[in-house]
Amino acid sequence: MSMDDESSTRLAAAAAAVDLKLSAEQGQKLLAYLQLIAKWNKVYNLTAVRPEDMLVQHLFDSLAVVPALLGQTGGRPVRLLDVGSGAGLPGGVIAVCCPEMQVDCVDTVGKKAAFVQQAAAQLGLANLRGVHDRVENLKGPYDVICSRAFASLADFVSWSAGALAEQGVWLAMKGKTPDAEIAEVPAQVEVFHVEQLQVPELHADRCIVWMRRAARAQSATGPTGT
Which of 19, 31, 136, 220 is deepest in the core (most CB within 10 A)? Predict the structure, then answer.
């Protein structure tokens, strides 16, 4: 079995393990995305993860969040912002798996945003965009703002609050449940769910901390539409 065949087999098993249906084309695009990361990483230093570990630590780790995201959004065509996206993780993976979502990946490092733009062009992902900027400068509105190993929860929500839609949610990917960080979340934000994740082939704790504006903060901004 070739490396490509082995990766395809492992990816199919991982998708099944997280109860995610991928077409053959989506599977090919995910593996091609990973190959682009490995190729560009030699010059642009996108990630410290070794090529042999990228399938699990990058692709499967990002893949595990997709069913949870779909469960939260109901499969609606939402706008999603991936903050501190780096090589487009998990944003690029979400864009492949959820073509109905418009995904923007923002990073303060220009070469990382440029990589996401290049990957989107090469893989024909019209719903994926790399943005070179600070998240504080973005207005959105985004229905979902996500991050993966980006910052503390308090900093994440404070920096990105201006880009979140009124009824939007924050999705923070973390390792162990970050109780200390949760305790520091500002009063105008509520943690409404901590969702445990099982990442295929990864023997480590992973969770999603779901957050939204507290009801009191929402009402203070005036009435909103349905």
Answer: 31
Q: Across the beta sheet with 128-132, what order do the strands follow?
A: 128-132, 102-107, 79-83, 142-148, 164-174, 206-213, 189-197
Q: Give the pLDDT score at 218.
A: 55
> In a 3-state reduction of DSSP, which class is residue 67?
helix
Q: What pLDDT digit, counting tens, does each position of 148-184 carry?
A: 988 999 999 999 999 999 999 999 999 999 999 999 9
- Please tell me whether residue 170 adopts helix, strand or coil conformation: strand
Q: What are phi and psi of 40, to 5 degrees?
A: -70, -25
**What does DSSP assign to residue 164?**
E
pLDDT in tens, 127-140: 999 999 999 999 98
pLDDT score of 44: 81
Residue in this structure with the two tokens 């893989």, named with its chain if needed = 123
CA 107 to each of CA 133, 146, 161, 164, 223: distance values in angstroms, whole numbers, following the listed order: 6, 13, 16, 17, 33
Does 224 score more than 50 pLDDT?
no
Residue 68, phi then psi, degrees to nearest 5:
-65, -40
Answer for the pair 68, 151: CB distance below 8 angstroms, yes or no.
no
Strand ranges for the chain from DSSP E: 79-83, 102-107, 128-132, 142-148, 164-174, 189-197, 206-213
Q: Where are the domains of the chain?
A: 3-220
User: Could you give the CA distance from residue 3 to residue 116 in angstroms, rounded to a whole number?
Assistant: 24
